[in-house]
Design a protein that fits this description.
Blueprint lengths: L2 H9 L2 E6 L5 E4 L2 H6 L10 H5 L4 H16 L9 E6 L5 E10 L5 E7 L1 H38 L3 H7 L2 E7 L7 E8 L2 E9 L3 H21 L5 H16 L12 E9 L4 E7 L3 E5 L2 E5 L19 E4 L5 E5 L7 E2 L4 E2 L2 H10 L5 H16 L8 E7 L1
Antiparallel strand pairs: 1-2, 1-5, 3-4, 4-5, 6-17, 7-8, 8-9, 9-10, 10-13, 11-12, 11-14, 14-17, 15-16
Helix pairs in contact: 5-7, 7-8
C-alpha cells in the first residue's frame, strides 16, 4: 500500500486483515500497532493466529472459520461478529468484524475496536445482575415479612365460630399491608377491630405489627373492655412507642381504628371509631354508626374525644368494618373514586347472599370497578352476621 494510505490506515480505529487461500495472513493494517501493540509484520503469516490468541483450540477454530469463508462464492449473508484479541501487553481488545471477499479470492476482514463500548455493556450487565439479585433478595425478605404478618392475623374460622357467619376480604396493595384485622374472645366478650395504619407496603406493615402488639397489651393484658377506653389507651401507648422521651422529633404516624366489643350474653355490641365508622344492615336498611374524627397516634398535643355507642343486636343483623381502600379506589368510566355511598348501595344489594358469597361479590365488584387502574391502597372489609 502507498505511504499516504498507510498513514490514513494507521490513524483509523479499525484493523484491516487480509487472508489468502492457504489461511495465511498477507496484510495487516498499520493501526495494529496502536490498537494491539504489535508491529504489522509480526502478525503476517501465522503470526496473526498465534499472537492474538492464547488458546490453541480457539486459534484452530477461528482459522477454520476463515478457511470455510474462503471457500464460499459470496459472503453477502455473513453477519458482523465480535471477537476478543490479546494485545502485546497481555490486555484484551474487543473487535467487531465484517468480512468480505477480496481480490484473488482473499478474505478481507475489517475490525472496529469496540472495547470501550463492550466494557460499558459488561459493566451495565453486571450492574443489572446485581440489581436483579438485590431486588430478588428484597422481594424474598418482603415475602417472608408477609408470612410473619399473616401469622398475627386471626383465623377467620374463629370469627365464624363465635358469630352466625363472617368473612374477611383482605387485599394488600403490595405484598404486605398497612391494614389488618383483630379478633379476641374472653368469656362472653368478643373484640373485633379493623385497623388502617399509616402508609402501605413495608412501612405500613411495620406499623401494623406495632399496633397489633399494643392492641393485645391494652385488651388482653390490661383487660380494658370499653371501646372508647381501648382507643384512649391505644392512642397513649402508640404515641409513647413512636416518640421516645429522649427524641426531639415528634413522629406523626398512627392509625384509624374501627373497634367493637360484643356482649354475647346480652346480645349487644359497643362501638367506638377513630376516623372509621361502622355500617350495619338491618331489615333492608343501612345504619351508619359514626366515628370520632380523631386518629390514633397523630396530634399528641390535641385533646381527643372517643365515644362508645351501644346497640342491641337483632337476628340477621349484618355488621361491616372496613378501611378506606375499597371506597377510595379509582375506576369506572370516569376514573373516579368508588366512594362511601356506592359502597353502601353495594352492601344493600347483596343481603340475600351467604357471607362467603358476599366476599366473592365484593371482590368481583372491586375488580370490575378498578379494571386497569392501579390499586391505590390496601383493602380490608370484614362482614359479621349476627
Amino acid at each position: 500500500m502507498s505511504l499516504v494510505t498507510d498513514s490514513i490506515l494507521e490513524k483509523l480505529n479499525s484493523l484491516i486483515v487480509i487472508v489468502n487461500q492457504l489461511g495465511e495472513v498477507e496484510y495487516v493494517s498499520p493501526s495494529a500497532k496502536r490498537i494491539l501493540g504489535f508491529e504489522p509484520e509480526q502478525l503476517l503469516g501465522e503470526g496473526w493466529w498465534n499472537l492474538t490468541r492464547d488458546d490453541a483450540n480457539e486459534r484452530a477454530d477461528i482459522k477454520a472459520i476463515a478457511l470455510q469463508q474462503l471457500k464460499q462464492d459470496s459472503l453477502l449473508m455473513t453477519l458482523p461478529y465480535e471477537r476478543v484479541l490479546k494485545t502485546a501487553s497481555g490486555a484484551e481488545r474487543w473487535i467487531l468484524w465484517n468480512t468480505s471477499k477480496g481480490a484473488e479470492d482473499t478474505l478481507v476482514g475489517i475490525g472496529h475496536d469496540i472495547t470501550d463500548r463492550k466494557k460499558a455493556e459488561l459493566e451495565l450487565l453486571e450492574k443489572n445482575k446485581s440489581l436483579i439479585q438485590h431486588n430478588k433478595d428484597m422481594l424474598d425478605s418482603i415475602q417472608y415479612a408477609s408470612r410473619i404478618q399473616e401469622a398475627i392475623l386471626p383465623d377467620v374460622n374463629k370469627i365464624k365460630n363465635v358469630f352466625n357467619d363472617a368473612f374477611v376480604l383482605f387485599q394488600p396493595k403490595d405484598v404486605v399491608s398497612g391494614d389488618y384485622y383483630f379478633f379476641y374472645q374472653r368469656n362472653n366478650k368478643a373484640f373485633v377491630a379493623a385497623v388502617d395504619c399509616t402508609g402501605h407496603g413495608v412501612p405500613g406493615a411495620l406499623m401494623s405489627i406495632i399496633a397489633n402488639g399494643i392492641l393485645k397489651e391494652v385488651i388482653i393484658k390490661k383487660g380494658i373492655e370499653e371501646p372508647s377506653e381501648i382507643l384512649y389507651a391505644l392512642d397513649e401507648e402508640l404515641f409513647i412507642a413512636l416518640n421516645k422521651q429522649n427524641s426531639e422529633t415528634i413522629t406523626n404516624d398512627g392509625m384509624d381504628v374501627a373497634m367493637a366489643v360484643f356482649d354475647l350474653e346480652k346480645q349487644t355490641f359497643s362501638y367506638a371509631g377513630a376516623f372509621r365508622p361502622m355500617l350495619m344492615v338491618r331489615n333492608g336498611t343501612i345504619i351508619e354508626v359514626e366515628a370520632n374524627r380523631f386518629p390514633i397516634g397523630f396530634y399528641g398535643d390535641t385533646h381527643k374525644v372517643f365515644t362508645s355507642h351501644t346497640v342491641e343486636l337483632l337476628p340477621d343483623d349484618t355488621l361491616y368494618f372496613f378501611t378506606d381502600g375499597y371506597c377510595d379506589q379509582f375506576g369506572g368510566e370516569n376514573k373516579k373514586k368508588f366512594n362511601r355511598q356506592r359502597f353502601k348501595e353495594l352492601l344493600l344489594s347483596m343481603q340475600t347472599m351467604q357471607m362467603q358469597e358476599q366476599e366473592s361479590f365484593l371482590q368481583y365488584a372491586y375488580l370490575n370497578w378498578k379494571q386497569e387502574e392501579p390499586q391505590v391502597d390496601d383493602v380490608l372489609v370484614m362482614g359479621i352476621k349476627w
